Automatic annotation (TrEMBL):
Main localization, broad class: membrane
Subcellular localization: Cell outer membrane
Keyword Transport included in the entry's annotation: yes
GO molecular function: siderophore uptake transmembrane transporter activity; signaling receptor activity
Key word Phosphoprotein present: no
Protein name as catalogued: TonB-dependent siderophore receptor
Protein's membrane topology: Multi-pass membrane protein
A biological process from GO: siderophore transport
GO cellular component, one term: cell outer membrane
Leader peptide range in chain numbering: 1-27
Length: 787
């Protein structure tokens, strides 16, 4: 089989980061005509396919999103290899096609006339073995329906479980390092564990945080964290997305997809040891509870004791410890009904804010804080469910709900100036609790009106956040910069500086129609109306405020999918995000608004596991807060930021053993309106150019069978540390690598290194005395056993 040809523009962009693999050799065809007897009972489609591939003695690669929630009648009788696949997949719209030395499951290309398809009852998630390639074919992030990525009129990146495993990503930000349009770790490594992310030049830390399609609300230091070992994939939808998700910033959303219970038994345990005394153990257990697999379970657990790269001068390290457990249960009485109950508990203990003392833009080993005082403790728990039911060939309903709570305590020492005794410090304590309730109700109808095939989605969602915060201050000993002393006692701060309750509510009603025209065109039209409310109760000042509003957003997009898998598209989308605070007259601000034009081409060669994307975008965000020149100290919603650019992405997985992901991003971002003297400047933390490439090769049929070797390069262009553009941060290029060996398909030894050559670099600086060093080299060894 030949390596899929890259479009010329994409090939040029990626050539500087990684070489494409040589032509894959044609593997000898198995004896497809030879008949064998099979007796495979009915069950989930992935269970039946796995059993069939095992009995037939062939390797089958499956994108779990294609089989999730589908049932099969099994297979009984004598069949040739291809005939058996055809019988199992009859009416499903799927086919098993040869790839390298095995088979890969593919969605059948559009045909003229009607194609009978098995109506899927899908859940977010995929098979026990995860997405078996780097390339996903479908995603719900861009439409809230199970839609081919080629049919979504926006740019989407999906990071599958296979890619996460190859790179041994230890956090969500590490997962996103190779995604176009995304800038991560903008403040370097954060011991508090927050995901610092920018998308297309806009903040995506909190307002863009989604899990299993539901927003994860947050406030202050109470932000939800995600354990990457418990995720099946991560989906990045770039560009304004309020038409489906409500309030959010202009860059897009990041949807974390949980691992789900599976009908096929799968058990794995792993141990890790790495740099900075990192020790981690994890287990993932899933399978059926009863004989007919209508009840399934999954239990995921992680325990970690570790330090970070930061050390106090006295030798004390800043820790990064975690305990995590996530049980889930699925009841699937038929192919039409599925109910999954999910719970999660996470406990993190870390050393809190770094507080690196910086002199003339050079970080030192001296810390603002003290190991006896600085800490960040977070306890997080949630419970929720996913429910789906198909009434008939036309109607199906879905409902998802999650209630979560985060408790956080941050003790921190801050610099307050210079004095006769040295660097003056103050002690702060942040004691915060946040509770978030989210629900999404969807009714989907699939029907035809003449030559038009409609997928209509009507939805009603609700999100509520209650955040209770108390912040105290207190005195702290000064720090002698010439002879710093650590390990001292600092009194617990007790003077309140803030004590308040914040409550936010959002209700959204949305409608979307995906119209298939002549099997090639896809017109997507959607609209949404939101009602939102924010209440602030300051128990210290006895001053309360309330903000309410309503907002409409829409999206329209058009795709055309050629028979060869080339799919040009164009779209227009909107978003909004409420602004907190009041004007000089006490009035609430209008929400910021964004609109985007996007055009691009997606290419997924028929019969191959590959996806190439080129996207051009133009975003304008208005009502950005800026100085009120008539009332110093106050703000008005009159600013504007523009972001225009180009994104290229290529992914492929070949049966011959090659896996690749690569990207290039150009962002021309500008503060186009401002009253603070920054008009015409580039927003902080936004590189103009960035690129990445990761190539992995797994030996299949040789003495080295089971050995896998991978390497990647990441380039992040220069940025500014402030909007005044007075602090320029140099670009940096980092190299990552991975090596693994799997014995007997059960036991895997691996080692991964990030920043392999230990390059020193700055992530950013807010001023010459406040800089954030980048991630140093980290090496992690892992032993995994599947049974």
């Amino acid at each position: 089989m030949q390596v899929p040809a890259l479009p010329a523009a994409l090939a040029l962009a990626l050539a500087s980061t990684v070489l494409l693999p040589p032509t894959a050799a044609q593997a000898a065809e198995p004896a497809t005509a030879q008949q064998r007897s099979y007796n495979i009972p009915a069950g989930s489609l992935d269970q039946v396919l796995n059993r069939y591939a095992q009995d037939a003695g062939v390797m089958l690669t499956v994108d779990g999103a294609l089989t999730a929630g589908r049932q099969s009648a099994g297979l009984r009788g004598s069949y040739g290899l291809n005939d058996g696949f055809a019988a199992i997949l009859s009416g499903s719209g799927l086919a098993a096609v040869t790839q390298g030395s095995g088979y890969v499951l593919r969605r059948l290309p559009p045909q003229s006339g009607d194609v009978a398809t098995l109506a899927p009852v899908s859940v977010s998630g995929s098979g026990a073995a995860g997405d078996a390639t780097y390339v996903a074919e479908t995603s719900r992030a861009g439409s809230k329906t199970e839609t081919s990525i080629l049919d979504v009129p926006q740019s989407i990146s999906v990071i599958t479980r296979r890619q996460m495993e190859a790179q041994n990503a230890q956090s969500v930000t590490e997962v996103l390092r190779y995604v176009p349009g995304v800038n991560v770790e903008t403040y370097g490594i954060d011991p508090k564990g927050f995901d610092w992310v920018m998308i297309r030049g806009f903040n995506a830390q909190s307002s863009s945080d989604y899990k299993d399609g539901l927003r994860q609300g947050g406030s202050g230091y109470t932000l939800f964290r995600s354990e990457p070992f418990a995720l099946e994939r991560i989906e990045v939808l770039r560009g304004p997305s309020s038409v489906l998700y409500g309030q959010g910033d202009a860059g897009g959303i990041i949807n974390r997809v949980s691992k789900m219970p599976q009908a096929t038994p799968h058990y794995e345990a792993e141990l890790e040891y790495g740099t900075y005394q990192r020790k981690q153990a994890a287990v993932d257990l899933t399978g059926p509870v009863n004989e007919d697999a209508t009840l399934m379970y999954r239990v995921i657990g992680v325990a970690r004791n570790a330090n970070t790269q930061f050390t106090y001068p006295n030798g004390d390290r800043i820790e990064d410890d975690r305990r995590y457990i996530a049980p889930s249960f699925t009841w699937a009485p038929s192919a039409d009904t599925r109910f999954t109950l999910m719970a999660e508990y996470l406990r993190d203990r870390s050393g809190g804010t770094i507080g690196t003392v910086t002199i003339n833009g050079k970080p030192t080993n001296m810390r603002n804080g003290d190991p006896n005082f600085n800490r960040f403790d977070q306890d997080q728990k949630s419970v929720g469910y996913l429910f789906e039911h198909r009434f008939n060939e036309t109607f199906q309903v879905r409902q998802s709900m999650r209630y979560g709570q985060v408790n956080a305590i941050l003790d921190n020492l801050l610099l307050s100036g210079l004095g006769a005794t040295g660097i003056q410090r103050v002690a702060r304590r942040f004691d915060e609790t946040m509770a978030n309730f989210a629900m999404d109700n969807q009714l989907q109808a699939d029907f035809k009106t003449g030559p038009l095939a409609h997928t209509v989605l009507v939805g009603l969602d609700y999100n509520r956040v209650h955040a209770d915060a108390r912040r105290d201050t207190g005195s702290a000993p000064a720090l002698n910069p010439y002879n710093p002393v650590y390990g001292i006692d600092v009194p617990t701060p007790s003077t309140p500086i803030y004590d308040g309750l914040e409550r936010t509510y959002q209700t959204g009603l949305y409608l979307q129609d995906q119209i298939k025209i002549a099997e090639r065109w896809m017109l997507t039209v959607g609209g949404r109306y939101d009602w939102y409310e924010q209440k602030l109760e300051n128990r210290l000042s006895q001053v309360d405020s309330k903000q309410t509003g309503e907002h409409f957003t829409g999206r329209v997009g058009l795709n055309y999918v050629f028979a060869n898998g080339v799919a040009p598209y164009v779209s227009y989308a909107q978003s909004f995000l409420p602004n907190s605070g009041t004007t000089a007259t006490g009035s609430t601000f209008s929400p910021s608004q964004a609109r985007q034009w996007e055009a691009g081409v997606k290419y997924q060669p028929v019969g191959s596991s590959a996806l190439y994307t080129v996207a051009v975008f133009d975003i304008r965000k208005t009502n950005v807060l800026t100085n009120d020149l008539s009332n110093p100290g106050f703000a008005i919603a009159a600013g504007e930021v523009k972001s225009r650019g180009v994104e290229l992405e290529g992914k492929f997985s070949l049966g011959s053993g090659w896996d690749f992901t690569g990207s290039y991003t150009f962002v021309d971002a500008e503060i186009s309106r401002s009253n603070d003297g920054t008009k015409g400047n580039r927003p902080s933390l936004v590189p103009e150019h960035s690129a990445s490439g990761w190539l992995n090769y797994t030996f299949r049929d040789s003495l080295l069978a089971g050995l896998s070797v991978g390497a990647g390069v990441r380039y992040v262009g220069s940025t500014y540390g402030n909007n005044t553009n007075t602090l320029k941060i140099d670009s940096h290029t980092l190299v990552d690598a991975g090596l693994s060996y799997t014995y007997d398909k059960q036991l895997t030894f691996s080692v991964n290194a990030t920043n392999l050559f230990d390059k020193d670099y700055l992530a950013t600086c807010s001023d010459l005395t406040d800089c954030y060093p980048g991630n140093k080299r980290a090496v992690i060894g892992r032993v995994k056993y599947k049974f």
